[in-house]
Specification:
Length: about 260
Amino acid sequence: MLQNLETNAAAGARPNNCWVESIRASSPTHMKSITPSLLEEKRAWIIRHPSALDMFHEITEASKGKQIVMFLDYDGTLSPIVENPDRAFMSGKMRRAVRQLAKYFPTAIVTGRCRDKVYDFVKLAELYYAGSHGMDIKGPTKGLKYNQKSKVVNFQPASEFLPLIDKVYKVLVEKTKSTPGARVENNKFCISVHFRCVDEKKWNDLAQKVKEVVNEYPQLNWRQGRMILRKRGQGFGILVSKFPKKTSASYSLREPDEARIIF
Ligand SMILES: O=P(O)(O)OC[C@H]1O[C@H](O[C@H]2O[C@H](CO)[C@@H](O)[C@H](O)[C@H]2O)[C@H](O)[C@@H](O)[C@@H]1O
């Protein structure tokens, strides 16, 4: 069971300033003032994680003869990042591209979001959905031959924790309500605390409040948020981000539109 502190607060045992530093490091607002050293850093980063568009030939060559499975993140990959998580809509163009992709390869959406919510955005029954960071997985309900309904994958290994997660969600809402802009999102098997719309001067304060709650529930697993396309085994990880970030992905793309072109 996971707790996702948006954007990028880290593990419960770490002091607040580590959480806040982590948020700051990945905050686009910090990247507005482009200094020469930042530019240099960006250039070096792009060399380490070249654009998947430029490397498309190499990627397809290396995939030849292999069974291909697509694992796609939702936020920032299929939809643009927006301030209100309830309004992170996916474009019709992107939906068509993903539908097309799923005709050729098994395709899964892997997200920190609640599975039902991401399904409401994507609306494609032919995909696998792994919500709550994999704590809630459901296979395709479309494209199965008749009488195969029993074969639909359903995986919810942490159901017994639902009452506890619900309780922690309410505690977090109460605790953070005095921080303007703070938002707590119930993702069913995990909870996100959003810092995006909070004044940076209040981040320490908010991190402290969250930490107080975190410390009361050691049975929950707390970790930092925002994963994009992940690299697994022999796979190709592609990070979709406008800003250089620490990543285990081999390649990068700047925005969802570039991801759509790749599909
Ligand atoms: O692990 P992910 O699948 O990448 O999910 C991480 C979080 O995604 C959503 O938050 C992000 O997108 C929001 C809408 O664009 C944005 O407001 C927020 O700042 C981003 O972090 C989702 O709302 C969270 O619950 C997920 O944990």
